[in-house]
């Protein structure tokens, strides 16, 4: 199958193209191919209404292939077109939209010469493919074709069904889009990280992660630990939701402007984006810890309520995404105050004076508190007082023994952790918090829109903190509003939202939990800086 990337020139493709073909059921159709659409009109006398017209948008097409006849005497050829069109689905009184697969096959029988028929089928297939790959939106490139992906699957992610989900939904889509891939099932924690650290990346056009956000976190850090990190981190990444939080996958779906979907429908949406192969820039954040360990993060840095829920809810993993709901309710019932110092560099602030420039070498995926469960919680409208420091010390996945990296771009906005923050930073006067989180993508979970204004490469961290004193009920309302991304307009006096380029957090308690991209990391003072557009991701 000829699938080389060609400059799309409608004139060269002689558009519009018209033709008459039969489908597998011998019904005759006329096809009209324009720059953006394929119009299919029934002309035969088979069952169904003659003359019915279907218009399919080429932007919904992921592939088209031509094929010759399989049996000797048959001189016909054919081509198959694969669309994933957006359809409305009614659920009760409300409707939702999702992508549904449409496969069309047409036979070319115009000539008695099989080669002529095959050439005609190839001409149509080529023109449909070219029309389908017209870049849209703010993409920086598209994955060259034909292409080969490395697909990493974490069999333990989510409810442990990532591999089955891949086989049932994604495998066929990749075939239809003419994408070949090498499948690697991860065997343990850090396997993916080690693999991409050592791999010959030139073999693949993209590294795709079918898991939760934790496996992508490993891959990003594995790439940044390489000597050739600058080139390696330019490898297009892909994400397919197979975990329980799936925050980046949900963010990318949200950025595409589509209506929210969950579970397998989100997987099909992300599979579709992967097949379209449009590459966008992705911001990364370098996170520096007291031990001089430095990690790279694409999603979130969290402390307090959010971090505790993320880690404590691990034990409810078998229930999938609902694990965050359960964790949130449990933590709400024993709400704590977390004491510490928070400082940040606001995004609108001018660049720091040069004297501060030096290189340091050094989720809550909490989620849906659904209203049914919320009613079952006996929420008291009592104000919390400075109850206690966090005493929930969880074993971090990423400890100071983990390699981390001293490589990567210098953190020009940060000074060493043992020095005071630069004078032009804002130091938060409160020192009692319920939660502190910096997020750099819109979602913290499939159904939790923490930073609705965020974009893949907006060059800022969205810092949200909740001051102590908020009632359980108000906090619950905040999470419920977050399901629609409405929490920042509730005017809750305990909630602060600010866009920042860098921040520092110094917890006072000796034990506790800090998460980066949903993974527990070394607990203690931590600071972070955004590095705009450092990585690349296949997005819609
Ligand atoms: N074969 C494996 N066995 C056990 N753990 C693994 C394996 N492969 C990867 N891991 C680890 O599993 C952890 C969780 O993975 P991941 O975050 O991708 O899924 P999840 O927790 O279900 O999803 P989410 O982060 O969206 O909630 C990661 O830290 C990863 O290192």
Folded structure, characterized:
The protein has 540 residues and is an alpha+beta fold. The chain folds into three domains: 17-132, PH-domain like, CATH 2.30.29; 141-279, Rossmann fold (3-Layer(aba) Sandwich); 285-533, Tumour Suppressor Smad4 (Sandwich), CATH 2.60.200.40. Helix content is 22%, strand content 32%. The chain has eleven helices and 25 strands. The chain has helices spanning 114-132, 162-176, 191-198, 213-224, 229-232, 247-255, 263-276, 305-312, 322-333, 371-376, 472-482, and strands at residues 17-23, 28-33, 37-42, 53-57, 61-68, 77-91, 94-108, 141-142, 147-153, 179-185, 206-211, 237-241, 278-289, 294-297, 300-304, 338-346, 426-427, 432-439, 443-445, 448-449, 461-467, 495-507, 514-516, 519-521, 526-538. The strands form four sheets. Strands 8, 13, 14, 15, 16, 17, 18, 21, 22, 23, 24 and 25 form a twelve-stranded antiparallel sheet that branches. It has a seven-stranded antiparallel sheet with strand order 4-3-2-1-7-6-5. A four-stranded parallel sheet has the order 10-9-11-12, with helices on both faces. A hairpin with a 4-residue loop joins strand 13 (278-289) and strand 14 (294-297). Helix 2 (162-176) runs parallel beside helix 7 and helix 6 (247-255) crosses helix 7. The radius of gyration is 26 Å and the shape is elongated. It starts with 16 loop residues before the first strand and ends with a strand. Residues 1-8 and 354-392 have low confidence and may be disordered. Adenosine-5'-triphosphate is lined by residues 154-158, 186-189, 191, 211-215, 218, 243-246, 365, 397, 518-519.
